[in-house]
Amino acid sequence: MKIRLYQVDAFASRAFSGNPAAVCPLDAWPDDGLLQAIADENNLSETAFFVPDGDGFALRWFTPTTEIDLCGHATLASAHVLFNILGYAGERIRFRTRSGELVVERAGTALAMDFPALPPRPCPAPPALLAGLGATPTAILAADDYIAVFDDEASVRALAPDFACFRRLDRRGVVVTAPGSDVDFVSRFFAPKVGIAEDPVTGSAHCELAPYWAARLGKNELSARQVSRRGGELGCRLQGERVIVSGRAVSFLQGEIELTR
Fold first, then answer.
1. In sequence order, what DSSP letters do the residues of the chain get, joined into one string?
2. Considering 46, 153, 198, 233, which one is annotated as catalytic?
């Protein structure tokens, strides 16, 4: 049994930056245990799998330890593979996922993803969150993740979290964010609970961040940077109950998984 595999640096304009994702096109779904084993073997924050489905594709995402509901960078990587390697001729791709239908379309040299907006709400600070941060944010919000807001970019870059504390939290992960020095906002994302200590660039977190920063800054078009070690650039546009998250992607490798029965 052979499965094609592509590795793509998403939210990047050059190799060795952005967030690497593995992408495996399939003709039909194998056993879920095999999908999880491949993601574990790849040991990237996400491996995406897709199969043809009507006029689009069914798309699923796995971390090394679990299947997740929404992943931005691996969706971007999947669209990049379809558009630039597999010869998909349309201007937009429809993906059917656990988070509903997601549409990705060409936007000049970038790709634009139409995702659900997930506006965060203020909430009490769980003790494990504050202990894990080792610093005091100016606000705590929650949506799919806890969001800790800081005053400046330097505070976000300086954080050295205690991941054991974050594993005790009742949400997927922790986003830290602040105004950017040369972009509208910056962020970092930690999700040790689902096998990701720090994610290099997290498209899905911007479904939460874009509504917050749009309301705070009074504008719907936003520039963003995730300030992980690898780093990545994103554009965000709040559009009603949707967020358009855009970015570029770069192919890194092509290969083949070879399995013996």
1. -EEEEEEEEES-SSTTSSEEEEEEE-SS---HHHHHHHHHHHTSS-EEEEEEETTEEEEEEE-SS-EES--HHHHHHHHHHHHHTS---SSEEEEEETTEEEEEEEETTEEEEEEE----EE----HHHHHHH-S--SEEEESSSEEEE-SSHHHHHH----HHHHTTSSSS-EEEEEE-SSSSEEEEEEEGGGTEEEES--TTTHHHHHHHHHHHHT-SEEEEEE-SSS-EEEEEEEETTEEEEEE-EEEEEEEEEE---
2. 46
* CA gap 82, 62 in Å, rounded: 19
Max CA distance (Å), the chain: 57
Give per-residue pLDDT as tens, 69-118: 999 999 999 999 999 999 999 999 999 999 999 999 999 999 999 999 99
Known catalytic residue: 41? no
Backbone angles phi, psi at 17, to 5 degrees: -135, 180
pTM here is 0.90
How far apart (Å, rounded) are the C-alpha atoms in residues 242 and 135? 32
Distance CA 162, CA 175 (A): 14
Q: Which two structure tokens, joined as six digits, stand for 179?
A: 């105004």
What tens digit of pLDDT does each residue of 37-61 get?
A: 999 999 999 999 999 999 999 999 9
Evaluate whether 201 touches 231 at the Cβ level (below 8 Å): yes
